[in-house]
Amino acid sequence: MDEIASEYDVVVLGTGLTECVLSGVLSVKGKKVLHIDRNDHYGGEAASVNIEALFKKYGKNTGDEPWKKYGRINDWNIDLVPKLLMSNGELTNILVSTDVTRYLEFKQIAGSFVQQGAGSRATVAKVPSDAGEALRSPLMGLFEKRRARNFLEWVGSFNGNDPATHKGLDLSSCTMKEVYDKFGLEATTRDFVGHSMALYQTDEYINQAGMAQDAIQRIRLYVNSMARYGKSPYIYPLYGLGELPQGFARLSAIYGGTYMLNTDVDEIQFDDAGKACGIKATMKERGEEGPGMKFETKAGKILADPSYFPGKVQVVGHLIKAICILTHPIPNTDNSDSLQLIIPQSQVGRKHDIYIAMVSSAHNVCPKGYYIAIVSTIAEGDSNHHLELQPGFERLGSIQEKFMGSPTPLYAPLESGVNDNIFISKSYDATSHFETTTDDIRDIYRRAEGHELVVEGLREGQTLAQE
Amino acid sequence: MAARMQQGGRPGGSRFAQFKLVLLGESAVGKVSLVLRFVKDQFDDYRESTIGAAFLTQTIALDESTTVKFEIWDTAGQERYKSLAPMYYRNANCAVVVYDITQASSLDKAKAWVKELQRQANENIIIALAGNKLDLVSADPTKRAIPAEDAAQYAREAGLLFFETSAKTADNVRELFTAIARKLPLDQAGPRSIRSAGHRPGVDLRPESSGTQGASGCNC
Ligand SMILES: Nc1nc2c(ncn2[C@@H]2O[C@H](COP(=O)(O)OP(=O)(O)O)[C@@H](O)[C@H]2O)c(=O)[nH]1
Ligand SMILES: [Mg+2]
Fold first, then answer.
1. Between B133 and B219, where is the model more confident?
2. Parallel, antiparallel, or unpaired for β A258-260 and A33-36?
3. Does ligand 1 come within 6 angstroms of the Cβ of B135?
4. Which one of A22, A183, A258, B144 is most buried, counting C-beta atoms within 10 A?
């Protein structure tokens, strides 16, 4: 096996989406990158797994190989992270700028829904996509529809730099409550606007001074994403989210990045100033005889997911999720082959929304006739997590198979990395999309490289040997 | 998609199919060199063997009315530490598994890659085995480490096309790709061929394709 170079500009640990995007971008910019993962597959927490791996991951591998009744195991690509891409979001922008779209195909998510009421009185309705749809929405009464239309039209024409469009509000300091009040919106409307369009998971944003601007940007992202392809604001890669890190890893490799799966980091080396400056590692395939291939290399800096530095991260929350396999679409959703359904916290007496993300064979993630729905929320209690997800389960109808583990801790780095030269990413959070992931990517890039990441025109002027 | 001229493409009434082709084999056996010979009719003795070819396409006109377009994926070096992603094999219609006829161990590696393809790729994938660097042996027969007949017999048993090639002199390179094209099922071409016709099944993310579904969005 070839020798590993004695020095790399950047050593990246973990092949989650965040790490792979950064690896790709840095390689394109001419950095010499070594990218390592202890697993035998790409994606880490952002991988998509087959049905056998899923049963095993959740400890459901009872003697009778229960996955066998679900057809060919490799027809399944089940996400571990319940997320979708905003079609006008930043990840889409990065995919296009880096040309990673060459390796992936995307399809729309067929619908975006929101629940009103709870228990036996719960109804499910389409989230209106624009001012016109607001007028037809069953979510509001006649007069409220007009107010909602006025509000959405204003959001669309709002210009941050033009105070004439600010309706006399001082948007740098005002709260979203003041904006809602200005348009006279009812509580139920505020609920679906804030939770199913602005995609806030709690109501904390309403009374925070200066948050109105953020809320308006979020609603615009929703509306513009919706307008892009029509059915929902979301798109999704064929064969599952696990394709995303693989695509960016390929980008990195094409620009010279070196990839090593099945590789354990044995030691991080530090210089006298306490900054990380190298690694010792061992590559060894599963089941391989002998000590494996040991190597040592210098590293200009280290980028890593939280699992590589448990002592340098803190727990900032717990995500609870259940992966459910269905044999039918979700009731009352127009037989959509894929969707997001949000249950706002206020409707079911919680502090955090419950999300349902569903995909199916339309996205090549399972055989025909199956649907994969992930129900998730932020844990509010220390026990009975199953009950916290119950309002979500009620939406699904009969559930063929349910995979639910203990709550997943969400990690964030304790330090920025400037002191120890180790730049750590955050866990994939509970939001329904990748906007916070791309924020983290930009943040890590800024911390590690000392300047802003600009993806537009990234590949221009970076000629490959044979392009 | 790369905006490359489709040589041999004809409008109207003709058959046109696009196929994904993947390259496999040990590092430095000449995978990228074979493709660069096929696509650009170039060869470089001092190529840095680590840098990959991003994405190359080449068309072959099989007859007056039939054109086959290859969308060629290079390993980009991810084979070096056995870190190829499932994405690489996904929907591959055909594969060229390369070994170096002057390196004894490279045929065993090629056999391992064929096994990997049978495990990971489509069942009906067409595989060609290419024993590369034929020019070295032509110049000095003592350099041959793998008898052609050994490889040919293995190829027969495993159901593979087989050629000895030289990316340097272009020997058998076009023949190799043409043989693959002839073996591909043109009538039931896979999803890749639909894609080539201009309508990908999914959505097109490029900015110019947006805003076609009604203009209810705001301009931010
Ligand atoms: N003599 C000779 N050298 C070759 C041939 N094909 C490739 N090479 C050389 O072998 C080295 C590795 O080639 P490359 O295409 O990068 O191999 P890859 O790693 O399998 O993609 C380069 O130095 C090439 O110039 C060939 O047919 N004949
Ligand atoms: Mg190569």
1. B133
2. parallel
3. yes
4. A22
What distance in Å separates the CA atoms of residue A354 and residue B150, rounded to the nearest whole number? Answer: 62
Hey, CA dihedral for B38, A249, B120, B28, is it positive or negative? Answer: positive
With bands split at pLDDT 50, 70 and 90, how would you rate the model's confidence at B56?
Answer: confident
A326 has a chain B CB within 8 A of its CB: no
Query: Are β-strands A422-424 and A293-304 bridged in parallel, bridged antiparallel, or unpaired?
Result: parallel
Q: In this structure, are residues A156 and A131 in contact, taking their beta carbons and an 8 Å threshold?
A: yes
Cα angle: B124, vertex B128, B132; to 5 degrees:
160
Which residue did the predictor score with more confidence, A384 or B44?
A384
Copy the structure tokens of residue A390. Answer: 């119950």
Classify strands B15-25 and B56-63 as parallel, antiparallel or unpaired. unpaired
Q: Is the Cβ–Cβ distance between B132 and B100 less than 8 Å?
A: yes
Pocket flag, ligand 1, residue B64 (CB < 6 Å):
no
Q: How far is B177 from chain A (nearest CA, A)?
A: 19
- Confirm or reject CATH 3.50.50.60 for domain A7-48+241-313+411-453, answering yes or no: yes
Q: Are B131 and B164 in contact (CB under 8 A)?
A: yes
What is chain A's alpha carbon radius of gyration, rounded to the nearest angstrom?
A: 23
- Domain segments of chain B: what residues? 15-183
Does A156 touch chain B if contact means CB atoms closer than 8 Å? Answer: yes
> What whole-number distance in Å separates Cα of residue A131 and Cα of residue A117?
23
* Alpha carbons B194 and B200: distance in angstroms, whole number: 7
Q: H or E segment at B6?
A: none
Which of A318, A320, A328, A327 is CA-nearest to residue A404? Answer: A320
Can you list the residues of chain A whose pLDDT is less than 70?
1-2, 461-467
CATH code 1.10.405.10 for A130-229 = yes
* Contacting A residues, span 223-262, partner chain B, CB-CB under 8 Å: 223-224, 226-230, 235, 238-239, 243, 246-247, 249-250, 253-254, 256, 258-262
Report the DSSP beta bridge partners of residue B67. Answer: B16, B61
How far is residue B212's CA from residue B203's CA, in Å, rounded to a whole number?
A: 11
Size of chain A, expressed as the number of residues it contains:
467
The domain locations on chain A are 7-48+241-313+411-453, 130-229
Pairwise CB contact (< 8 Å): B87 & A247? yes
Indicate the fold that domain B15-183 takes in CATH: Rossmann fold (3.40.50)
**Domain A7-48+241-313+411-453 shares a fold with domain A130-229:** no
A312 in the Ramachandran plot: left (φ > 0), alpha (ψ -120 to 50) or beta?
alpha
